[in-house]
Amino acid sequence: MSTFDLTSFVANNTEDAAQKIIHNAMKEFDNIAISFSGAEDVVLIDMAVKANKNVKVFSLDTGRLHAETYRFIEQVRKHYKIDIDILSPNSEALENFTREKGLFSFFEDGHKECCGIRKVQPLKRKLATLDAWITGQRKDQSPGTRNVLAFAELDSAFSSEEKPLYKFNPLANWSSEDVWNYIKMFDVPYNELHAKGFVSIGCEPCTRAVLPNQHEREGRWWWEESEHKECGLHIGNLIPTAQQ
């Protein structure tokens, strides 16, 4: 990669052209990977594979995922004939945490510490090896935390002055309906939990099915206030509040 011109990239791409954004991002960066966990991310993989068979994909294994999610990861690996880099938490940090606080401390003092060990730290280690990454974030996934989401940005959470990291969110302006229309149209694999009322799927203890007309994030960390419903993976997109 030569010096990446973010301003030029934004000017030469349109926010609704997801496939073009992915293709052009992969042209700009050799050392780029897709973060995979849910339905949106498989849409990204499907688009990316059509452009480049050597797509790099990684996924976070927190150790607390549903059995259906583990089967889904394997299904995607076989369907697209790709390698998926499975990231695990640091064993010593995790052992110390569970020894001190047990397996369900997040119901008492919030999910941030657990997510920090199981998700954020493994992600941070992975991103330190990359120049750019692609995520399936959508603006409408989490009201109050993702309303402002660019389709291409400097990652404010994980960049450093010595090593900038760029982040692409090609589905930023997509709706859930857009995602599922694509999945149905191109016969894209999806997590079987979606057929059981789960919309936004994370770790098993922190995820539940939602009722009709409930927002998808109501199924995540339901015991906490809506403005706290981020695990830290996309902390750079949080909107400051008057209290912060």
From TrEMBL:
Family: Belongs to the PAPS reductase family. CysH subfamily.
HAMAP family the record matches: CysH (MF_00063)
Record's protein name: Adenosine 5'-phosphosulfate reductase
Binding site for [4Fe-4S] cluster: C114, C115, C203, C206
Stated role: Catalyzes the formation of sulfite from adenosine 5'-phosphosulfate (APS) using thioredoxin as an electron donor.
CDD domains noted in UniProt: PAPS_reductase
Cofactor binding note from Swiss-Prot or TrEMBL: Binds 1 [4Fe-4S] cluster per subunit.
Pathway(s): Sulfur metabolism; hydrogen sulfide biosynthesis; sulfite from sulfate
Top enzyme class: oxidoreductase
GO molecular function: 4 iron, 4 sulfur cluster binding; adenylyl-sulfate reductase (thioredoxin) activity; metal ion binding; phosphoadenylyl-sulfate reductase (thioredoxin) activity
Protein source organism: Marinomonas pollencensis
